[in-house]
Amino acid sequence: MRVTFLGILIALFLGIAECVKQNDFKKCQQSSFCRRLRSLSDRKTNSSVWESPYAITRGLEQLGDEAASYTWKLNNRLAPEGIAFDLAVDVLKDGLIRLRVDESGGLYQRYNQTASYILVDQPELMQASSVKITSYDDVDNLAFQTSTNQPMELKVYHNPLNVQLKNAQSGEILVDINGESLLHMEHFRHKDAEDTDNNSAFTWHSEQPFEDPNTDGLWEESFNNKPDSKPKGPEAFTIDINFPSHSHVYGIPEHASPLALPPTDGSSPRRVPYVDDPKPYTEPYRLYNLDVFEYEANSPMALYGSVPLMHAHSPRSSLAVFLLSAAEMWIDVKHPTKESTSTQWISESGIIDLFLIPGPTIEDVFSQYASLTGVSQMPQEFSLGHHQCRWNYFTSKDMLGVVSGYDSIDAPVDVIWLDIEYSDGHKYFMWDKKKFPDPVDMINKIASKGRKTVNIVDPHLSRDDEFYVFNEASDKEVLVKKPDGQSEYEGWCWAGSSSWVDMFNPASWDWWISLFKFDKWKDSTPDLFTWVDMNEPAVFNGPEITMPKDTVFYGGVEHRDLHNINGILFANLTSQALEQRQEKNSRSFVLSRSFFAGSQRFGAVWTGDNLGTWDHLRSATPMNLANNIGGIVFTGADVGGFFGNPQPEYLVRWYQTGAFHPFFRAHAHIDTKRREPYVLDEPYQSIVREVLRLRYSLLPVWYTSFRENTQTGLPILRPQFVVHPSDAGGFDIDDQFYISDSGLLVKPVVHEGAQSVDVYFAGEEPYYDYFTHEISLGSKHKGRRKSFFADLESLPLFIRGGSIIPSRQRARRSASVMSKDPLTLTIALDKNGNANGRLYLDDGHTFDYQDGAFIDRQFTFKSDRRGWTLTSSEIVPGDSYEDGNEVFIERIEVLGLKAPPKEIKVDGRPLEFSWEDGTAASSNKEDTASLLNIKKPLTKIAHDFKIIA
Amino acid sequence: MTLPRLVGILIALSLVGSVECIKGVDPSIEHLYKPIDGRFKCINSDVSIPYSALNDDYCDCPDGTDEPGTSACSSYHHTPQFYCHNEGFFPDKIHLSKVNDGICEEECCDGTDEPAGICPDTCKQRGKQYKVELEHSERIRDKALITKSKYIDSAKKELNRLSSVQQDKTRAIIKAGERELAAKAEVDRLEALSKDALSAKLASPLYKHLLDARSALDDLKKENEAVEADLSHLLDILESLKNSYNPNYQDMGVLAAVKDYNAYIDTRKKRSASNELLSKLQNEDLVNLIVSLDQSSGDKKDDIDSMLFNIEAYLPPTMVDNYRAFKETFVGWLVKFSIIPEPSTQGNASYIQNARKEHKKANDALQKARNGLAKTDAEVAELKSGIRWGPQGEWNALNKECVSQNIAEYTYELCFFDKVTQRQQGRKSGGTSLGKFHSWNEDAGPGSEDFYNLQVYTKGQRCWNGPERSADVEIVCGEYNALIEVEELEKCAYKLLASSPAACHENTRRVHIRHDEL
């Protein structure tokens, strides 16, 4: 009895502790549109005769003769007289389907501008002649082929409305829309007509009403005493999207949740590696960009960014759906059977703008999605190095001390960061001259050692008469307005009373760009780059720490309509500003906390204010993987954890993990102790230095990976299901990953006191331990788990057989001084004795590569009966670039050869080599691989070569 | 015969020459780079490589020791660093990672860290500049040493002064002892006379109730102290919140609390210390009091009453009610038991009372004198033993001496051996305590040079949501006592740099020079 009572007490206490943070943020029930539309599913369950009231009233019409663009008239037979909807379907060039629903002739126009800010271009339509249309009484069938010649069919059933995408070859139904009869778009209505509308017309003729009879919050609502006036009344929509033959769904970042999305109906999740104790989710996944203080490590709660892209995957096929809405969104996930998934998407406002991305291969999905929101920008090469941040380095001297701290322990770092305290009273752009008397001198001193400075520019402007940025914004009337649409909105943020720039106002664009010009911002240099934080936007005294939904943006648009793309506009404009501040074409580097689909075009993002706890270290991998498969490849997490004073073991594990995130930045809260590598004790300091050097040695891999992303849209961090799409055993694995196509496989160690770690090897190839060259064998049919010793110095890193890894093995202090350093090629043979690899290099900071100033090499190692050949050939002809002509190969290592060669020659010139006995890749044995080491082939990387043995 | 020998010598010479020329090698370990049978033996490994592979820009040795002059082995640990000869200046070393990286290292003024033609040789210039600086700092150090010797002199004088104080105090103790003995004898004598009478009085209900009242008073005082302590604790918390609240927590509640606190402080009434009065009442000699009742007339009660009423004026408002209840009961007892003074014992009691007072005075004086001597003894010991004040007592001159510096919006004040304070610029008093003197550098051996390079100040005002503030004060040799620099690298952990002549020694190289002096 006593134990039980104590148990209850503990449970209560924990409950309370957890709720402290959660109470600041809405649950679905507390967001009236989510409550109303999510409950459709409950009413359906309680009804015996539920049927969708939506039906086509006028059949397919083609818009024009040329393009594959079609419309239907749609109606909700329960809605009042005169309410009608348009359904539009575009077949896009690559075989994507764009499906739009809008109210026609409503009281207002639903917000429909999101696509114009997010898509790279107006999507190109397929020729109408390429789409074969077959119409029957109650169904229209559109047959077409994807870019990879897969035959597809889109079926539009009229009554009730039901849209299905089918793989015409396999007959598999890929996507089924409104199959659950939950589709609903709330029409605009007059407030005084509410009673008649709801009570008569919208009542289902049977035991369950269609719309929620609870009309609370239809016209105004409040949360934590913060009111939302909702001048346009209800305007939400919901749509059910089923994947009848796909067991796994992924994506819709940003959530601190497993990569394979657990169901949200309270049923038990599948076991995933990253959570020790998986708890069922009962809330839908929420997409609403928020500044969540000390967020939870396993939760469907909203975070800083939103990418409404969901992948559905099975061993047979891959596809994705993309619901392009900038309003608050909630997504339910269920598994009606083990092999199927159903989802319900609920959005507060705007049109339905849904893209079906047909696949059918995972590579197709990524390239098709990239045709919509684009690929990564080619980053500044320095930004792939190590970043050292802290809230805050307080003075110029402090900053220079960080640089010399790194130099003193001979560890590399490229960028030193300044958080908000560099500024004068949080008036960004304006340095606190008492602490930073000569910012340009400081930046130059840091730059003299090949390093960069980043400082923060937040979008809230201090309402201080002496702040020129605020004054200019106010004069130009480019500040967000109060609900009255006239006066400037004021809120509370770091700077105290603040106003926010309305980046939707075109008048703000040139002005914002001008702020970064050197003649305007005199305290900046080309070596200073920008961090855009708090751009969700974070408003300390606003509802859910953000801006009230009824504030007014350019053109009278409410904040509710565009909230989730507010942040990306800041990153976009700031990235443009950095590109345009110099006459010489120079790439930007911008880090943004808030993001949306397409943010990859404007720089890096990170996972925000994580905690210095082990579960947050664990969550960093699935979160970064989710961003990567959402197209946002330049991602990372605060190494060390933002909050707390972690133990050195924890820090070491963080560096080992963060070194394999594309964006690699250590950061810490103002209340924490200093924890830069140079203040660590031994052996931790040496371990961290080795990790940093490892990162720098692999910069050629990282840079090549970015180049590859810009060409294929494939992610840089690749979860198991992307690399082995037909190995179902890997679908739930989210604690190990591959780095692009390089062949590197990483398994971060993320448990306290861990001495061993399990690695999952899929496929038939041997995997080589990066450091010991020990071979582990994969398995063709079912992946194989193997335990590895992993003390604090060990970092489980493997090369998949068949890969060639280019690296730079000379320790340097920063990336920018490595551009002439020679390369090492590590060739890990597959079981047939072959391997391939790629290396892309350019000057790392200009756009000259677009004019051909790059080196892009394909390396091919081929074994035959007589011996082997290593060739280097151009993938795309390039003209090289200045430093590129000085880069040569200093060493070639071949792992897994059967026997040493008698001689090795390049262009008839014999090469010196050494040999260490070991196991051959072809032997099917797990032991240390043989190693052939070729000294100084001295072949110029820019030139073709052939090495023969 | 001659010829071959000469060739041999020439070869030997050229080998020696080539050893000397090995790029990047520190001459003190150049013997490790001698060829053995035409090969180079890797320093920390049994592997040997062709001598031609030394410094060939390829890392051959498993320990990375074969490339002392290139960056090829820069990723290896514990390899010797690149050595720059820096002719005309001091030789120096850099990590191999900084060789051939396109950046001219400050450490290598001869420019040998990069291929020829990239970095200029600035060693002569650096040497000249160094000489100028060295001379200057030596001048300053010598001036400072003069000041330091004055400090030492004044420590000696202080020691002399203290020993004469010791003598004076010893004499005073003897006198005070004599006086105490005499007074004690007088009390004993009188007490013997009136012992019986007194015991009767001490048995009276009034005395018992006085004892009760005393105990109630004790409780009241304790309670008052507790309330005062709580209040002051709460005010400290609020003050600390106000000074250091962290907007990161985005908490509107904290903003409101700080506002209300400011309003409270502005309107708060200054209260006298009621404890002093309570202490006075507490220390009243009850025996004397009851004896003195014998002498009292009607207005004696009024006196007590008025005194008791007056107390109210000193009490915090919250305590007045309690006190009033207590007072009424107390006065009630006095009335209820209406003790009639006994004329026969009146005079006797008065004598004893006076004698006791005299004895107490004499005893107090004796204790004071003894304590005073103990203190002086301790001071002498401290100054002589040389830990706190330095081997020659040179730091004694800085005791409680204050130096200050304006940095950003604050004035920082360091009072050596006392405290560190941070104030808004322009304010003369108050401010935030960054710590009280705790010790010299405890990580160094007591009395060592490092020991006197650092003073540790701890237990400053607690930070909001953080630790107590603390300050480490590094003290370097300088012409004057001065506070040079303040940094707060972590929240609430300050680093101060101060200078003092007391930190200078004959061999001091590092001398603080103000920039405008050069």
Unreliable stretches covering 5 or more consecutive residues of chain B: 1-19, 296-309, 339-347
Pattern of helices and strands of chain B: HEEEEHHHHHHHHEEEEEEEE
How is the biggest beta sheet of chain A arranged? 10 strands, antiparallel
Query: If you compute it from the alpha carbons, what radius of gyration of chain B comes out, rounded to the nearest whole angstrom?
Result: 39 Å
Describe the structure in brief.
The complex is a heterodimer of chains A (949) and B (518). Chain A is α+β, with helices and mostly antiparallel strands and 949 residues long.
Structure description:
The complex is a heterodimer of chains A (949) and B (518). With 949 residues, chain A is an alpha+beta fold. Among the domains of chain A are: 23-191 and 205-373, Immunoglobulin-like; 717-948, Immunoglobulin-like, CATH 2.60.40. Helices cover 19% and strands 27% of the residues of chain A. By secondary structure, chain B is an alpha+beta fold. The longest helix of chain B has 80 residues, at 123-202. The relative contact order of chain B is 0.08. The model of chain B is unreliable at 1-19, 296-309 and 339-347 (pLDDT under 50). The A-B interface holds A 293, 394-395, 397-398, 407, 410, 412, 432, 434-435, 448-450, 492, 494, 540-541, 545, 669-674, 686, 693, 697, 809-813, 817, 820-821, 890-891, 935-936 and B 57-60, 71-72, 74-75, 77, 95-98, 101-103, 246-250, 252, 407-409, 465-466, 487-491. Chain A: Belongs to the glycosyl hydrolase 31 family. Chain A: Residues 87-332 form the Glycoside hydrolase family 31 N-terminal domain. Chain A: This is Glucosidase II subunit alpha.
